[in-house]
Amino acid sequence: MRPRLPEELVASTTFLLKRLGFSAKEQAMKAYEQTGLHPYHHAILIVLAEGSRETQGAIADALGYDRGQLVGLLDELEERDLVERRRDPSDRRRHLVRLTPDGEKMLRRLRTLSAEIEDGFLSPLSDKERATLHGLLFRLAEEHDPRCGPIGAPGLTV
C-alpha cells in the first residue's frame, strides 16, 4: 500500500491537476504503445485532418512544438506512410504536409483509442460531472493558454 500524500498537497487544486496530468499521460503512453505511435503523432494527424494548416511551420505553431522536434515526428509518420511531405511550389523553402489514406485510417483508430482512454480515466464521474469538469478546465485553459480560446480571439492566428 502506498503512503498517503500530505493533506496540504492534496488540498491544493494545482497539485491535484499536476498529479492527474502525470497519471493521464502515463496511461495514454501505455495505450499508444500498441499503435507504435505517440500522442504527439496523434495531435499532428488531427491538425492535418482539420485542413487549415499544411506547412511544417504552421503545424509546429498550432501545437506549440519545437520545429526541430516536429521534423523528427513527421519523419516517423512519413516512414509509416501516414503523411506525405512535398516542397511548396510557390515557396521552395517550405514543405507542405498532408495525410495519406493510411494516415486517415490511423487517425480514426487513434480517435477511438483516445476516446477509450478518456472514458476510462473519467470513469468515476457521471456524464454531468464530466461536462462540468470540462467546462471548468476549458475556462482555465482559455485564460492561461490563448490557443484554447475561440477562433478570432486576441492573440490567436489561424
Strand content: 5-15%
CATH fold node name: Arc Repressor Mutant, subunit A
Q: How many DSSP-defined strands?
A: 2
What is the CA–CA distance across the termini? Answer: 49 Å
Order of helices and strands: HHHHHEEHH
CATH superfamily caption = Winged helix-like DNA-binding domain superfamily/Winged helix DNA-binding domain
Let me know the largest β-sheet. Answer: 2 strands, antiparallel
Globally, the shape reads elongated
Average predicted confidence as pLDDT: 91
Which structural class fits the helix and strand makeup?
A: mainly alpha
Number of domains: 1
Number of helices: 7
Radius of gyration: 18 Å
Within the largest sheet, what's the order of strands? 1-2
CATH architecture, please?
Orthogonal Bundle
The CATH class turns out to be Mainly Alpha
Query: Fraction of residues in helices?
Result: 55-70%
User: Low-confidence segments, ≥5 residues, pLDDT <50?
Assistant: 154-158
Which terms would index this structure?
Arc Repressor Mutant, subunit A, single chain, disordered C terminus, 61% helix, 7 helices, two-stranded antiparallel sheet, 158 residues, mainly alpha, 2 strands, elongated
Please describe what this structure looks like.
By secondary structure, the protein is mainly α. The chain has a single domain (26-147), classed as Winged helix-like DNA-binding domain superfamily/Winged helix DNA-binding domain (Arc Repressor Mutant, subunit A, Orthogonal Bundle), CATH 1.10.10. It contains 7 helices and 2 strands; from the N terminus they run H-H-H-H-H-E-E-H-H. The chain has helices at 7-10, 13-33, 39-50, 56-63, 67-79, 101-121, 127-144; strands at residues 83-88, 91-99. Helix 2 (13-33) packs across helix 6 (101-121) and helix 3 (39-50) crosses helix 6 (101-121). The protein is elongated and about 60 Å long.
